[in-house]
Amino acid sequence: MTAEAADKNVTPEAVTVLDTTIISDTDAGCATISKSVIAMIVRKYTLEVEGVSRFAPQRLVEGLADMLSKRNYERSIQIDFVDNEVTISLTVIANFGYPLPTVVKNIQSVVKEKVEEVVEIKVRKVNVFIKDLEEFAEVQPVDEALPSEA
Question: Which end of the chain has less Cβ packing within 10 Å, N or C?
């Protein structure tokens, strides 16, 4: 049994799981959270930031797999637990025409705030990589007035 396992009275198997972190350890029991849960929170709030188009696939093969998977964003979000803190790194595609430093600051702010609020774990850093820009064609307004028939 490792020293960490002995200190917390948990099995060595629980200590070797790298996909989770302990968020609460009381006499009543231990609560752990998965990286996937944090990734889902990051995804939801990042996509709400003005100027963010979507998460970027890391490679072509992943891009194809992303079309078939519900959890495609998890490859674009990296969660690292260090001590009692989390470092989050994400790769996004931004919309053309938005000031990128502002988009990055807004992503960092909302991700830090929401993860700390929902999970109650301190966010050490939020690293944002903008991989590409996406330009949307302007939508032309449809003329609703019908020509008069006289």
Answer: C
